[in-house]
Amino acid sequence: MLNKIALEEAWNIPEGGSLGGFDSAKFSSKGVIGDDLGANLLDVHGTRLQQMDENGVEFMVLSLVSAGPQGISDPTAAENLARIANSKLCGEVMKNPKRFAGLASVSMHNPDQASSELKRCFNELEGFIGVILNDFQSSGPDGNTMLFYDDASYDPFWATAEQLNCPVYIHPRSSTPEIAEKMWKGRSHLNFSALGYANRVNMHLLGIITAGVLDRFPRLKLVVGHMGEHIPYDLYRIDHKLNRARFPNMRMRKDRLVRDYFGSQVFVTTSGHFSTPALLCAMQEIGVEACMFSIDYPFESIPNACVWFDEHVRDSINGRDLVRIGRGNALRVYERLREGPHRIKELGTAECGVGGLKAEEQEVEFGLYNKSWSRREVRR
Amino acid sequence: MLNKIALEEAWNIPEGGSLGGFDSAKFSSKGVIGDDLGANLLDVHGTRLQQMDENGVEFMVLSLVSAGPQGISDPTAAENLARIANSKLCGEVMKNPKRFAGLASVSMHNPDQASSELKRCFNELEGFIGVILNDFQSSGPDGNTMLFYDDASYDPFWATAEQLNCPVYIHPRSSTPEIAEKMWKGRSHLNFSALGYANRVNMHLLGIITAGVLDRFPRLKLVVGHMGEHIPYDLYRIDHKLNRARFPNMRMRKDRLVRDYFGSQVFVTTSGHFSTPALLCAMQEIGVEACMFSIDYPFESIPNACVWFDEHVRDSINGRDLVRIGRGNALRVYERLREGPHRIKELGTAECGVGGLKAEEQEVEFGLYNKSWSRREVRR
Amino acid sequence: MLNKIALEEAWNIPEGGSLGGFDSAKFSSKGVIGDDLGANLLDVHGTRLQQMDENGVEFMVLSLVSAGPQGISDPTAAENLARIANSKLCGEVMKNPKRFAGLASVSMHNPDQASSELKRCFNELEGFIGVILNDFQSSGPDGNTMLFYDDASYDPFWATAEQLNCPVYIHPRSSTPEIAEKMWKGRSHLNFSALGYANRVNMHLLGIITAGVLDRFPRLKLVVGHMGEHIPYDLYRIDHKLNRARFPNMRMRKDRLVRDYFGSQVFVTTSGHFSTPALLCAMQEIGVEACMFSIDYPFESIPNACVWFDEHVRDSINGRDLVRIGRGNALRVYERLREGPHRIKELGTAECGVGGLKAEEQEVEFGLYNKSWSRREVRR
Amino acid sequence: MLNKIALEEAWNIPEGGSLGGFDSAKFSSKGVIGDDLGANLLDVHGTRLQQMDENGVEFMVLSLVSAGPQGISDPTAAENLARIANSKLCGEVMKNPKRFAGLASVSMHNPDQASSELKRCFNELEGFIGVILNDFQSSGPDGNTMLFYDDASYDPFWATAEQLNCPVYIHPRSSTPEIAEKMWKGRSHLNFSALGYANRVNMHLLGIITAGVLDRFPRLKLVVGHMGEHIPYDLYRIDHKLNRARFPNMRMRKDRLVRDYFGSQVFVTTSGHFSTPALLCAMQEIGVEACMFSIDYPFESIPNACVWFDEHVRDSINGRDLVRIGRGNALRVYERLREGPHRIKELGTAECGVGGLKAEEQEVEFGLYNKSWSRREVRR
């Protein structure tokens, strides 16, 4: 599919490490994650853009690599990283705003300060269409205190995000050292993207929803990656077990189920989970409007995500839904994409190269997974 | 789901038999089809409306029972039945236009005459939102000639339907006596709703599409029942095998596939095919926008269709898509439902009783297929 | 997937045309169907075997190209074609019985003669594992009479097939000239593989089932291609509408539904319908045991079918089911594959190259649709 | 479906509370969980059996309610509870071994002691077919130390389970007080069955698998409930992200993926997650052989689970797979069910009341979700 939009795409600043964030210089070895993680994080207009062009990605929404400010337990340092990263991200995306936009980073030590920084990004800088929170905020002298945003004290932040029409991407992050030691020692290979990321961030997301944040801020939108961090598959059990009689103090609206928020206030992306059965399950449970394409570059390969979506998903769902997931829904969730320096437009299936017999193919049949009739083609 | 709209619902006039149409008096025995087919066809405001009320059906679109004018090989008699039935249908639906509308019947012996009758229904009568064609038009002295509307001579009729913004429902009918004798003798139990209906009408529908009718009349919409008369399941093979090199004279646009018309110009209903796996397959292949709820009353039971949709389908898909299939799509396809004497409105999930913990149920859990905790409830 | 078995694969004899069958010489032009239909039908051990090797097809079951004897209205000529073709097929498959077996062809003018020829193939010749019937038998002076095998007079044939443990493949064929003229004129592009094949053969298959043939011969097995010729998608409606009160003379067991025969006596193949949504629907409705891989070579491309199955289907279902559909079920349905000159064995997922991290890939991740991290590979 | 087998069904002993286990007396209030949780846990042959009879549950496998010995940080007390509970469970199930069997409880403080107790249950007592482990073993003076069985020191226990052909059910439990305080405070409604149970036990299960336990003990079988504790939905991401280059010390076979163990060594049950979309997703990803019916009584209602399975799942999958999930797979995983005092037999679809037109229904149609043609039936 042509003209895809990708939403959970990481980027870094060279001074990330020195500011307490992710140190790109430490991850330069090839072959373990991607082909050159550190360098790929720093790059925007070179390899990244070239691969976007080669893979039908019209637009990428960039965000500072996790954990960003959330990983810094000192408030001033966290705020400093956010501010510097946001200013630099503005500079990068404004070099090519037809292809890039940014999600703002904020320190979540102080909801008011987070609100101020978010307002700065939306009102004073250009190129921002949302904000990213990398799970809980590290706090405390040893970094083992976790601040969660389902606490009522964060309502001013949510109010700001709603007022700015700024969707909030809830992204995973690493556990605190203490939890890593207590729960994941001996199985640390599971503590990251294979399992731990989802196990942590799904609690935080459900915490925010069941705390009634989306009820108090009914125009607020939340986005999570990785096909919903296990939640779509488990929605029956989640709604079934949040027994109001057993949990009378749960603040979510009594006449709402968790599932009711998906597609209107909660959305998932495909980042890093290129599974057709999982996508089909999500489409059944939360509906196509709640699903959006993303890659998770450079932790995932752009061509890999796009071959999956352009060829395998295309083979399994109709063209209208493909274009919604690949592009259309992003424009409805991130409304700023249609405005300002980006001016991204809604496109139909034909404009996205979906459906239709191609002019040059009129003499051959539809449905050729292998163009040659007689020779098994291999990817090269 | 509350407030459903049903689209393929049969009705008859007492004089149907004497006019060459369906003779309700001949089908009064209980137990074979429905509980009293003949009487149920004649009824609108009694049992039918009561069952609609009891089963969350806000609105029914009525049409003269098949084969109607299509079964009458004498043009004058066919036109006469259409005209009388349309006038009477107008009378019936206008007694309660908030609950009923009609599909016009037309003789298809002469495209111009069909156009005139359709214009009369849309411009001079009230309560019509579409037209129904019961497959081919019987013709010839012995009724064994079949007129198909993919012939270019029918373009004036399609032009009228498009100009009136009148969706055309293509409904099945019985085979000619000759074909019944040649192909179905000894297996006539298969010649009707179990198989023959679909086998005939899917050819006619694909004939119309591949003849380019939808290209020449790009605002024209076609509707078929019974979950698409086998077509959604077979779309790969259909598109794959309509090899343009082999069939260079096929008039459909060279840059289009049959699948491209679904959801914009071709729509299917669930009438008489209450299968969850089939619906899920259709949603994958043609998308939720192309699917609409219908019953096929009184050949099918209203409660049966509604228990399936309200309970079983609800358990398998998300609420937004349920409401689209049950109501929303009908309003987009049959735009006249929003206007004139009907003024049917778009409704959200909550208004349709979908999603949300009900007030009276706040103390118990979501997800109870059986309300009692300990006693197996049976339907009574 | 390695070691696949393909079941509906056509072959022809050079004298086919002169004997009243398919004339390979007439279909030599490239580009319309396949790359050289006539030559590909004649070939066994050259291009065909090479493409099998290149695409993980261990075994092909060959059958004389449709309509074979069924297309010949003269009994003697039909019997002659069958006998000659069977003897030649024996010769071809016995050149390489580890890679090929055959389905016998029979004239169906006379059930006793058909039984005799089938016995000859199974008892006197080698390499036969089943029989193929190309829909109805053409009969009568003008070839417009259709003989259907649901007639009780065919019970001796079914008894023979059961006694020989010989599965019967019901394959489509063209319509009679008369039906082609009456029903398909003006839309003949639909009369073949795009629609007409399935519309005819699904009636015949359901005729045989509902006539009680499978009840009278409970060890008899039937196979149909093209993902079941529309039937799996419509099983609810078929079973729902075969109302025993309305059709009291239907001979099928009163305590059986049509769906009950699938997986034990009726099986479908994927031949020519490489649709993932259709396969998923079939797996829901009739179960994985009822589904078997096939190509429909040379009317379909071997690499195309295999790229679909090896890559796209593999991405959508688990490995155990993939191997069942690709190989295991064929060994349970066609038991002779395990015996005689073939001695094909059951294989597990690892032996079929399904599942597992490959040795040479241990350093990279699972789930790469595109092997290169950074370059979009295209098939060449 | 008749003759279902249910595998994750809780039971308690009156002295459970005083022995450090679950105190049934504390959970007698109606309406919060079930209708009388404490009493229902103590009951076997009264209400429980009656509801089994009323809901087509032929057989229940009982296990001591969680956390059992795993919740007791004092080794002697934990061992004592296990021993007493096992002896009593033997007594209960042997009162009616045609309807009940048990899973042994073991303290996991000491693998050798656990092995001894398991051997006692399998060799000296009757009625045991497997063992249950309620996630990690609480340990340490404050109960905040967690013992996980992926540690190599537990190999003697796994060896015993394998040697006894004793499937190991990995069941969830509550978090330690410390983790509850650190992670779940303020959102404790999520810490139990709605989310926390799965988030903990999926880590433990994947820890065991990726530690190579199933490789070292290739006949060992593991079972988890709640539709796989999120894992089937996420298998792509799990296998994709367990990059062997990044995690070279992961002990699982280098030529295996996590998904390769499902259906042969790892199985899931439907306990407490009565979601059709989730079951369909699991069937795609891990296959029908890996899925088994269970209820989670008395935390879940027997009629609710059974109405879902008998009516809703039946409507969505074929009969052969329904019977496998409802019964057949349990006999293949828990082989002792076929032996000793139980002698449970494999049954076909007809014997389980699946498929077929019922004798008393021969006059009406198949596919009636609502038996009455005209009256909407409600469950009473």
Automatic annotation (TrEMBL), chains A, B, C, D:
Domain of life: Eukaryota
Domain Amidohydrolase-related, first and last residues per copy: 47-335
GO molecular function: carboxy-lyase activity; hydrolase activity
UniProt-listed InterPro entries: ACMSD, Amidohydro-rel, Metal_Hydrolase
One Pfam family linked to the record: Amidohydro_2
Protein's GO biological process: secondary metabolic process
Identification of the protein by name: Amidohydrolase-related domain-containing protein
Organism: Lojkania enalia
